[in-house]
Amino acid sequence: MRALICIDDTDNIDIKRGTGQLASELSEQITEHGWGDCEPVTRHQLFVHPDVPYTSHNSAMCFAADIKPQHLEDIIKYGGDFLERERAVGSDPGLCVVIPERLTNPGWLIAYGFSAKQEVLNKDYAYSLAAELGVHLSEHGGTGDGVIGALAGTGLRLSGNDGRFRGKFTIALPDQALTVTDIYAKTYITKVRSIEDGHILKDHELVELGEKVKAVLIDQEAVLLVVPLSNPGDRGALWRSCSKEELRAY
């Protein structure tokens, strides 16, 4: 059974162990307990506004997992206890767990996620929508306002078209060129795609890799976005991976 698990607002400005790291640790522990197999974590940027309290960037962290149905409640309880134990002082954590196949109106959850990227939402609305959809939503300290982002993050992950995968791939030296086939073999990336026109690169094409090679979620796949090299070198590469700045829209 597929599940989406999202957390938000677990850190404070003085704590370097951010929400992304906690999400990765939670996913690892779910696997270690034998409750399921987890996919990589995605970071989902939410609305940045003076009326929205956040630590640095206001982003939720979500991962998908193929879980054993009998362990759903174990995961929910463990996730809540984990947040209460690991959250930073002054944080307001929220936890959301969604079973997509049980959603009668998945479009509502996706729409909520994209709304959270554009407007200020409140906790009461998040709880009412969660109840309507039949998804788990809970707060685990402080004001509990993290439930807003946690619910939004599941909607954005469910859409399959939002977010950057947490972490970077260290698969070659900076500026080294690899074929698309080699990139697939060394990572969980499944498509290499031009950020400009969306066309998919062929297996034999060479890509020059930057210092931070990151994937984004597009059409439910982990995609490496690339741009044409303005001055191709002698290695034969016509493309380079996008920088972090070029990926900010994701």
Q: What is the structure about, briefly put?
A:
By secondary structure, the protein is an alpha+beta fold.
Write the layout of secondary structure elements.
Layout: E1 2-8, H1 19-32, E2 36-38, E3 42-45, E4 59-67, H2 72-86, E5 94-98, H3 106-115, H4 123-133, E6 136-139, H5 146-159, E7 164-165, E8 177-179, H6 180-186, E9 191-194, E10 206-208, E11 216-218, E12 221-228, E13 239-241
Parallel strand pairs: 9-12, 10-13
Antiparallel strand pairs: 1-4, 1-5, 2-4, 3-4, 3-7, 5-6, 8-10, 11-12, 12-13
Helix pairs in contact: 3-5, 4-5
Mind explaining what this structure looks like?
The chain is of the alpha+beta class. The protein folds into two domains: 2-164, Alpha-Beta Plaits, CATH 3.30.70.2200; 168-247, no CATH class. It has six helices and 13 strands. Strands 1, 2, 3, 4, 5, 6 and 7 form a seven-stranded antiparallel sheet that branches. β11 (216-218) and β12 (221-228) form a beta hairpin. The model has no long low-confidence stretch (mean pLDDT 90).
Please work out how many helical segments DSSP would assign.
Answer: 6
Rg from Cα? 19 Å
In percent, how much strand structure appears in the residues? 15-25%
Domain module tally: 2
**In the CATH hierarchy, what is the architecture of the largest domain at level 2?**
2-Layer Sandwich
Let me know the largest β-sheet: 7 strands, antiparallel
Instruction: Report the order of strands and helices.
Output: EHEEEHEHHEHEEHEEEEE
| Shape, per Cα inertia axes | elongated
Structural class: alpha+beta
Low-confidence stretches: none
Q: Report the span from N to C terminus.
A: 28 Å
Query: What assembly state would you assign to the polypeptide chains in this entry?
Result: single chain
| Mean model confidence by pLDDT | 90
> What name does CATH use for the topology of the largest domain?
Alpha-Beta Plaits
> How much helix, percentage-wise, in residues?
25-40%
What is the total tally of β strands?
A: 13
Mind telling me the CATH class of the largest domain?
Alpha Beta
